[in-house]
C-alpha cells in the first residue's frame, strides 16, 4: 500500500513535521466503528472481528469520551459532552434499527438502476460506483439509498429520510420476492 | 478529514443555481462555514430587509442538521435575541435528505409565516398574539433599523 509520503511525493521525514502542526483531534475511531456497518473489509481475514457495539447509546458515550480527552476548559463543548453522556446513559439514542434490520433490507441489483438514479443522501448517482450497494426502504418503492449512506442514519433513527415514516413500526423489510398469498409472515421481530 | 463530496456538490449548486433571495457563500478557509443572507419575503414585515445568518455544517453532517443562526437583529416570535431559530427541520425533524438550500428556504418561509404558538422568543410571541398589528409594526421598524441592505 502506498504511504502518505508516496501519495504526496514527499520525503519520508516530512510527515513527522506535518503532524506536529496539527491540533490535537479527538480520537473518533471508537465512535465511527460503533456506527460502521462492515468492518471486515478493513480487517485482515486472520484478525478476529472486534466486537462492535450494536447499541447507538454506546456510540454516544464513545463520542463523548473521545471529545473529553481532546478538549479542556471549553464550556460549550463540555456541556455538549455532558449531553452526549446523558443520551448514552438514558439510552435515548437507542432508537435506531438493528444490524439485522439493515442486513435484511431489500437490495437493488445493479441492472435495475438507471443513470439518473441518485442517492438522496450523498446526491451521487448510484452507477458512478462500479459495485453499487443499494437498498430500498419498506415505506415506498422509490425510496432507495446507498447502504453506506442510510446505515449511519438508521442506526440512530428509525425514520425514512424522505417521508419520515417509521420503518421499524412496519414489519421487517419484506423478504425478497415472495408471493402475495404468503400472508402469514411471522413477525417475531422486535 | 476531507470535505465530503456531498458538501462540495451542494456548494457548487448553491453558487451555480442560487435560490432567489438567498445567498450562501462558504468561507475560503473553512468550507463548512457559510455566510448567508436572506431577503425578507414580500408582503411580510421583513420585506426590504436583508438578514445575515451564519451556517455551519458539523462534522457528521448530513446525519445531523446544519447549525444556523441569525446575525442580524430580527423581531420574530420564532427567533430569539441570540438569533437562534425555532424550526422543526433544524431539530427533531431533520432528515439527511434535506439540504442547505431546503433549510434556507424553510427559514425564508418562516419569515413570511411567523408561528407565535411555537415560540422561542416568548415576549415577542405573546405580543404577537395580543397585539398583532403592533408586533408587526415593531418587526417592520426593526427591519428598517437593522436589516437595511
UniProtKB/TrEMBL annotation, chain A:
Gene3D superfamilies in alphabetical order: Zinc/RING finger domain, C3HC4 (zinc finger) (3.30.40.10)
Start and end residues of each stretch annotated as Disordered: 1-23, 167-190
The protein, known as: RING-type domain-containing protein
Biased composition (Acidic residues): 178-190
Keywords: Metal-binding, Zinc, Zinc-finger
Lineage per the UniProt record: Eukaryota, Fungi, Dikarya, Ascomycota, Pezizomycotina
Domain called RING-type: residue spans: 119-164
Gene Ontology, cellular component aspect: cytoplasm
GO MF term list: ubiquitin protein ligase activity; zinc ion binding
Keyword Magnesium in annotation: no
InterPro entries: Znf_RING, Znf_RING/FYVE/PHD
One of the GO biological process terms: protein ubiquitination
UniProtKB/TrEMBL annotation, chain B:
Catalytic site: 86 (glycyl thioester intermediate)
Secretion signal span: none
Pfam family, any one: UQ_con
GO molecular function: ATP binding; ubiquitin conjugating enzyme activity
EC number, UniProt record: 2.3.2.23
InterPro entries assigned: UBC, UBQ-conjugating_AS, UBQ-conjugating_enzyme/RWD
Family: Belongs to the ubiquitin-conjugating enzyme family.
Name of the molecule in the record: E2 ubiquitin-conjugating enzyme
Gene expressing this chain: UBC13
Amino acid at each position: 500500500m502506498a504511504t502518505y509520503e508516496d501519495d504526496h511525493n514527499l520525503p519520508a521525514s516530512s510527515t513527522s513535521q506535518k503532524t506536529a502542526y496539527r491540533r490535537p483531534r479527538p480520537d473518533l475511531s471508537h465512535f465511527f466503528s460503533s456506527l460502521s456497518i462492515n468492518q471486515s473489509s478493513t480487517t485482515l481475514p486472520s484478525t478476529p472481528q472486534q466486537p462492535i457495539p450494536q447499541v447507538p447509546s454506546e456510540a454516544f458515550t464513545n463520542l463523548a469520551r473521545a471529545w473529553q480527552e481532546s478538549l479542556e476548559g471549553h464550556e460549550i463543548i463540555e456541556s455538549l459532552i455532558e449531553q452526549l453522556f446523558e443520551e448514552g446513559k438514558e439510552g435515548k439514542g437507542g432508537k435506531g434499527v438493528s444490524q439485522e434490520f439493515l442486513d435484511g433490507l431489500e437490495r437493488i441489483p445493479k441492472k435495475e438502476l438507471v443513470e439518473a438514479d441518485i442517492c438522496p443522501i450523498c446526491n451521487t448517482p448510484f452507477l458512478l460506483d462500479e459495485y453499487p450497494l443499494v437498498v430500498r426502504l419498506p415505506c415506498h418503492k422509490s425510496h432507495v439509498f446507498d447502504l453506506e449512506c442510510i446505515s449511519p442514519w438508521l442506526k440512530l433513527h428509525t425514520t425514512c429520510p424522505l417521508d419520515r415514516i417509521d420503518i421499524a413500526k412496519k414489519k421487517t423489510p419484506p423478504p425478497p420476492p415472495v408471493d402475495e398469498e404468503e400472508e402469514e409472515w411471522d413477525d417475531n421481530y422486535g | 478529514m476531507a470535505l465530503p463530496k456531498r458538501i462540495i456538490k451542494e456548494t457548487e449548486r448553491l453558487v451555480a443555481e442560487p435560490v432567489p433571495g438567498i445567498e450562501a457563500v462558504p468561507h475560503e478557509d473553512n468550507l463548512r462555514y457559510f455566510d448567508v443572507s436572506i431577503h425578507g419575503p414580500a408582503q411580510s414585515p421583513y420585506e426590504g430587509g436583508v438578514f445575515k445568518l451564519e451556517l455551519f455544517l458539523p462534522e457528521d453532517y448530513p446525519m445531523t442538521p446544519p447549525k444556523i443562526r441569525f446575525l442580524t437583529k430580527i423581531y420574530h416570535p420564532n427567533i430569539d435575541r441570540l438569533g437562534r431559530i425555532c424550526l422543526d427541520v433544524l431539530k427533531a425533524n431533520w432528515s439527511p435528505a434535506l439540504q442547505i438550500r431546503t433549510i434556507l428556504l424553510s427559514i425564508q418561509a418562516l419569515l413570511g409565516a411567523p408561528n407565535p404558538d411555537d415560540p422561542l422568543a416568548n415576549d415577542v410571541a405573546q405580543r404577537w398574539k395580543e397585539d398583532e398589528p403592533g408586533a408587526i409594526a415593531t418587526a417592520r421598524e426593526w427591519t428598517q433599523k437593522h436589516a437595511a441592505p
